[in-house]
Amino acid sequence: MRSGGTGPRAAAGVGLWFAGNGAIYAALLPWYPLLVDRLGLSSWQFGLVVACFAAGSLLSSALPAALIARFGADRVVIGGTVMLGLAAAATAWSVNGVIMAICLLLLGCCDAIVDVAQNVVGITVQDRLGRTILSSMHALWSLGGLLSGAAATAAASSGADTRVWLAAMAVAAVVLTLIGRRLIGDAASPRRVADADSGQTGGPRTAQRPSALTARVHGGRSGSSSSRRCRWRSSRSAGRPSRTSRTTGRGWPPSISQTCRPPRRGSHSASSSALSASAASLGTCS
């Protein structure tokens, strides 16, 4: 059973993830001059090789959502960090500019995927804590990059082996990620990407057929003048929605109160009384 929870331990775990990601990225930068000299790259060749990192980030823009939906954000962070470390360590073993470009392409792809997954978990922990932590997480990413870059610069100046250093940094980043996963605990449960409307039953409302509306309006007064007026208005409205429905999407189908007005109270009895009085007066005259 995973330990950790929704308190400061979870926030500290996410912070380790961000710091480790920044550290493994910055660990490679101070070694660029040595790699260029060893591989014999010109200035424009080195520029194209470095641009492969950005190209990898762009090419992977559609992958994070699919991977998080399939495996969960926490597993994507762990697996992506392992691949990120392997790509960074493999860069030191490049024998030409093409191999280095491929390594940087994979490095940029994995880094972009891990960044998205880390932010997903960070938002989950932030929501459970009820306070903002993402700004601090990105500050820890910068701090990890600063410390790692400074250490790599010192190692490069002292003549350390590039392969050994990058391999050690890759292992350290993976260890930090595993420790952070344990600290986060259940707060990093896999988040599935789902359609917001998938839980709703039924589709969108469809307009009622005018015939059904007319039958309901007619009820027990199929021969009255108000029924004929309702039928005419209903058939008139069948071909086009109202102005309100065309502009705002509301007001369709028309309700009974919109289609026809009910007769005033007592009007039917009043008209019957008037007809009876007229018939009586005619009978008296005859």
Query: Count the helices. How many?
Result: 13
Span from first to last CA?
104 Å
Sheet with most strands:
none
**In sequence order, what are the helices and strands, one letter per element?**
HHHHHHHHHHHHH
At the fourth CATH level, what is the homologous superfamily of the domain at 8-188? MFS general substrate transporter like domains
Q: Which of globular, elongated, flat, extended, rod-shaped describes the shape? A: globular
Structural class: mainly alpha
DSSP strand count: 0
Low-confidence stretches: 190-261, 282-286
Could you tell me the radius of gyration in angstroms? 36 Å
What is the CATH level 1 assignment of the domain at 8-188? Mainly Alpha
The portion of residues forming beta strands comes to under 5%
CATH third-tier fold name of the domain at 8-188: Growth Hormone, Chain: A
Please give the share of residues in helix.
Answer: over 70%
| Average pLDDT score | 76
CATH architecture of the domain at 8-188: Up-down Bundle
